[in-house]
Task: structure prediction
Amino acid sequence: MCKRNNSSLFFTCSLIECIGRKLRQRRSAVVAAIGRNEVERVYQYADVLHCEPLEKVAEDTIEDCKLQPGSFDNVKDCRYAVPDVWTIGKVYARLIEDLSEEDNVIETLFAVYGSWLNDVLSDYNEVAYFQPREYLAESFRAGDLLEA
Result:
């Protein structure tokens, strides 16, 4: 299992969420557009990058990777209080921690963001992102949300 409270993973996932909101892109599209090398770079240097405001790192990444805006706006579509980028970053980081080994964190990140569960977690009108980390990990492994 990946170490718990992996601050580099937490920063990386929060950055993906921030970029997705800024560009109105699905988080899976953000991860795919950034690419493996850039995700690995952010993960590796998160301890340095977090010294800058997250929004600045997001803007730099958008510019460096030439990311384009889209039309996916799960924040605007939310009927309730919108969770902040750090809250969602924590949900993804914990899920990836629970699913990965130390040597495959990035592969697991790509698998999670490219999965069906990404769409479920991106719907802030549902309660999936409030679910316990164990429930989300087991649901991911099962390929569908488990019965409550």
Observations:
- Residues 20 and 27 are 6 Å apart (CA to CA).
- The chain has a mean pLDDT of 94.
- The longest helix spans residues 7-23.
